[in-house]
Write a structure and sequence with these properties.
The chain is mainly β and 128 residues long. It contains no helices and 11 strands. Strands 2, 4, 5, 6, 9, 10 and 11 form a 7-stranded mixed β-sheet that branches. A 4-stranded antiparallel β-sheet has the order 1-3-8-7, with no helix packed on it.
Length: 128
């Protein structure tokens, strides 16, 4: 069983930046794809980006490309989401997910159903 724990959310003013974290445990990440999603009240879970732990290949949603950056810390089994130029539309609960083998095909990596494990989420609120 794999466990994911997000942290680092909080209140940020418009135009600000924030880095949130996802710590994974219970399994090695060498063959795992990690992803960040967010979900605002009344909306579906939205794909933000993903990273292959091995190799570091990243994928981003068009809506956040250029503003959000995914990275990883090998020693800490941690995936980060660095967010800049935040606006009120970014307010949501942010979740990390993990896709373990047999891995979903690339064409479905933007679907929440492709990820078998999820963290509890961390609230990010953009407000002045």
């Amino acid at each position: 069983q794999m466990q994911l724990v997000e942290s680092g959310g909080g209140l940020v003013q418009p135009g600000g930046s924030l880095r949130i974290s996802c710590v994974a445990s219970g399994r090695a990440l060498s063959d795992v794809r990690m992803a960040w999603f967010r979900q605002a009240p009344g909306k579906e879970r939205e794909f933000l980006g993903a990273i292959n732990w091995s190799g570091g290949r990243t994928y981003y949603a068009d809506s956040v490309k250029g503003r959000f950056t995914i990275s990883r810390d090998y020693a800490k089994n941690t995936v980060y989401l660095q967010m800049i130029s935040l606006n009120t539309e970014d307010t949501a609960v942010y979740y990390c997910g993990a896709d373990v083998p047999p891995q979903a095909i690339l064409s479905t990596l933007r679907l929440a159903t492709s990820y078998e494990y999820w963290g509890q989420g961390t609230q990010v609120t953009i407000s002045s």
